[in-house]
Amino acid sequence: MSSLPQSLAELRRHPQFSEERLTTRRVKDELRDNLIARLRADDAVFPGIVGYDDTVVPQVVNAILSRHNFILLGLRGQAKSRILRALTTLLDPQLPYIAGCEIYDNPYAPLCSHCKQLVKGDAATVSIAYRSPDQRYVEKLATPDVTIADLIGDIDPIKAAKGGHELGSELTVHYGLLPRANRGIFAVNELPDLAGKIQVGLFNIMQEGDIQIKGYPVRLPLDVMLVFSANPEDYTARGKIVTPLKDRIGSEIRTHYPATLQEGMAITGQEAWIERNGHQLQVPDFIREVIEQTAFVAREDKRVDKRSGVSQRLPISAIENVISNAERRAIRVGEKIVVPRVGDIYAAMPAITGKLELEYEGELKGADHVARDLIRAAVARTYDRYFHGNSNLNQVVQWFDLGGEIQLRDSAAAQEMLHQLRGIQGLFDKLSALGLSGKEPGEVLVSAAEFVLEGLYAHKRIGRSEERVFTAGEKQPRREKQNLHEEDEEREIRRQRRPFN
Hints:
Number of domains: 2
CATH architecture of the largest domain: 3-Layer(aba) Sandwich
Number of helices: 22
Helix content: 40-55%
Structural class: alpha/beta
Number of strands: 16
CATH topology of the largest domain: Rossmann fold
Strand order of the largest sheet: 4-7-10-1-11
Distance between the termini: 108 Å
Largest sheet: 5 strands, parallel
Radius of gyration: 31 Å
Strand content: 5-15%
């Protein structure tokens, strides 16, 4: 930073910061130029954004190349904010501005009256400061209580009194977030939550560059790129968006959840805190798949609100909780390697239930009940991927049919469980379908064996109690008590209608 020009006089002599470049190249041109350079180099446009290479990213690229303000429409947990923040990687490393300026004025073309007066004087005395890309990104979460003063600014009577200025003068304005994002990117999350009059203030400054603050017209031709995010349900004609603002947003881009299980697992693996200090950790692939599959199943379940969606934060939080439960067990029983089991997924339900918005039917059942069903369905799908048409587990099922019984506690040590599980005929012979040779650590073998039993239970081939005691499956499904009551009532009605002899 010390080699950069520190005064306006030095800046004028520096070839990198020529007047022509800084005056004619606005922030949208800057983003466009740097994006073109990245495309020519065949580099990743937005490193760390997974699953959008053929859908969202090309549309964002088109919006930037078109110099559009744009909005990302999507449900929660679809990386909208992450994409908006990644735009800073397309900004220049340093941007010079007049030191002390509240709106970071261009040294060659200042907007505020104070900076205009400065540049008319001795250029050697005008100090220059620099902003990094991260400093040029301003983000605001829209809430109903946001005011024009928050976003645009307000008249400051104290400034007027101390400086002897008229109230309508620019020198009396206390600038809001949008002017302070001048020569940068201004992002508004959940745009429809802004009050209508605030939205009007936004589109006026987007189009005409002027606003009114408490009745005083203020001209602010800002150099700023505006980006937004919103839920599609709110961003409609009947929703809470002002139509003229919607008309002024150049591109409307839809985000989505991961299309495949592999994409979801890649996102979860990237975002979750998996690598722990202390114990050695090994998370089997089938455990990762069950956790990710839980989110996919939830997005299809009728008891889960589709308008709210199921955030990608569900599997991220869940796998962190699963590992923590396995870590707690390893610490208590003195195991050297931490290996999560299916039982740890059930223990991680607090990380799942909070991510689900339920419909009326789901509310009646309860979040815990729905979460257990989702995990069970996820286990069944994952089990089918490994064992469908590949392994015959009739011998294992027969062991339970002949009276076999085993309890798998998530707090039990691996060696204790291993001794009991080896008593189940044919069970360990089938673990090769999971890619195991049988020579793996006991903790891994126990996790795999438990997954097989949970898969058989998920397909109702064996039974399991709430205490996780695995037993023989019921040959005839037990009737619900409600149905039994209904049959009793019908029987009583028929008896009463029967004619007397």
